[in-house]
Design brief:
With 89 residues, this protein is α+β, with helices and mostly antiparallel strands. It has one domain: Rubrerythrin, domain 2 (Single Sheet), CATH 2.20.28.10. It is 29% helix and 13% strand. It is built from 1 helix and 3 strands; from the N terminus they run βββα. Strands 2-1-3 form a 3-stranded antiparallel β-sheet, with no helix packed on it.
Length: 89
């Protein structure tokens, strides 16, 4: 839920209110009691990530990296079979 800033043009009172986005804007000033409270236009807050951070290893690996590993393993397997066949002769 966002925090909205309000001001009263009649008495100059400024305040913040923690409200749901669905709630109607406040109307009555708590300082003077008049229904002249206006909501300020704010830029809002940015998105804040808390924690240790995000790294490349946090994401799902692509299928191409698995295919590259399999392709790299195939020549090694063939190389191992040839010396074994030569030793059997």
């Amino acid at each position: 839920m966002p925090t909205y800033e309000y001001f009263c043009p009649k008495c100059g009172h400024e305040m913040e209110a923690f409200q749901s986005m669905k709630d109607d804007p406040l109307k009555k000033c708590p300082a003077c009691g008049k229904p002249s409270l206006k909501r300020k236009v704010g830029g809002g807050a940015g998105l804040i990530f808390k924690g240790t951070g995000f790294y490349i290893t946090d994401y799902k690996k692509t299928s191409t990296s698995g295919a590259a590993e399999k392709a790299a393993a195939k020549p090694e397997a063939k190389a191992e079979k040839k010396p074994a066949a030569a030793a059997a002769k």
